[in-house]
Write a structure and sequence with these properties.
It is a single chain. This protein is mainly beta and 195 residues long. The chain has one domain. It contains 2 helices and 15 strands. Strands 1, 2, 3, 4, 5, 6, 7, 8, 10, 11, 12, 13 and 14 form a 13-stranded mixed sheet that branches. Strand 12 (135-142) and strand 13 (149-157) form a beta hairpin.
Amino acid sequence: MFRNKKYASPLAAVLAASALSLASSSAVAAVVCNNTGFAIPQTGDGIYFNLVTGASGTTGGAVDGFDLNLYGTTRLQAYSGADVSENNALAGTVVAGSNNDLYFVMTNGQPIDGSVSWTSESGAMTNWNTGVAGGYLGIRFDNEATGAINFGWLQITTTGPNGFPANVTAYCYENTGAAINAGTTPVSLQNFSID
């Protein structure tokens, strides 16, 4: 009879299996993306959106734990849902006394992490209102599924002079709380060609 002598005792085998399960926990870390676009309604309520659940609606009460509200009747505006979570914010700065936030138009590959300037204020998307083709809006939000603060991006196309019509064409976030670069997508969503 052949006997496997790989482990000296059953306890050693259990410890090895436990170590393997702990080591593989990082394997569940993922960049979560959705490339199904949606229009931003030119209304006072616009669209409320939860990145984790994918739920959207025209009122905050209709979208449990919303992370972002994009709206506006005369110009595109944004709100990060800071009343839902104090950690929710958008990449940008506040212009004192202007009621305008300068939400950054981030470029492909730009890092989105804790070192970025963040604002949780609601305001006009001044940098976006002139018309942007495929820019990235950085977002920080509480992931209700993991309990971690996540960083992500939304790819948005706007039209001048007031930002409408506007569309979100895709979004991604890193579900462990690690940094993500604007435009980063998993290999499964990328297009390749053989030359």
